[in-house]
Every structure is written in structure tokens, then in C-alpha cells.
Amino acid sequence: MPRKMKDFIASLPAKRQQRIKERSEELLQEHMALQELRKAMAFTQEQIAQELGMDQGNLSKLERRTDLML
Predict the structure, then answer these.
(1) d(CA 48, CA 68)
(2) Contact 55, 49 (CB under 8 A)
(3) The pLDDT of residue 32
(4) Burial code of 16-47, b = ≥16 C-beta within 10 A, e = fewer?
(5) Residue 3 within any structural domain of the chain
(6) Range(s) of the domain holding residue 36
(7) How many domains does the chain have?
(8) pLDDT range class, residue 61, cuts 50, 70, 90
(9) How far apart are alpha carbons 61 and 58 in whole angstroms?
(10) Alpha-carbon dihedral angle through residues 1, 22, 29, 49, given to the nearest 10 degrees
(11) Is 59 within 8 Å of 49 (Cβ atoms)?
(12) pLDDT per position as a tens digit, 21-56
């Protein structure tokens, strides 16, 4: 039976939960930095998406994502 990630993490030892939380925060900062970098370099989502070979809408979704795969 599938478990929610939140429940799975809650079942881990406190030390492991803390490491996951810290790494999650690092990844969020990295994500935010990349989005800010795109804006600072005056690139549009459309330009970046074209370079990556993806749809602009999908790039927008990636930039707005708050869930992380740990």
C-alpha cells in the first residue's frame, strides 16, 4: 500500500529527518537561485525552454514546483 512521503519521513529517526529538512532547504535555495539567474540574465522562459528542447509551459511548471524528489 502506498504511503505519503510526509508519513514516511515522520517514521524516520529524528536525526535523519533533520538531514532531510536541511537538504530540502538547500535544494529550494538552488531552485530559487536558478530562477533568479534566468531573470537576471534577461532570458525569457520561452528562450530557456527552446534551448532545453521543452515547452515553455513545462518550464514554467518546473519553476513553480514546490515538491522535491529526495
Answers:
(1) 21
(2) yes
(3) 65
(4) eeeeeeeeeeeeeeebeeeeeebeeeeeebee
(5) no
(6) 27-65
(7) 1
(8) confident
(9) 5
(10) -30
(11) yes
(12) 998 888 777 766 678 878 888 989 999 899 889 999
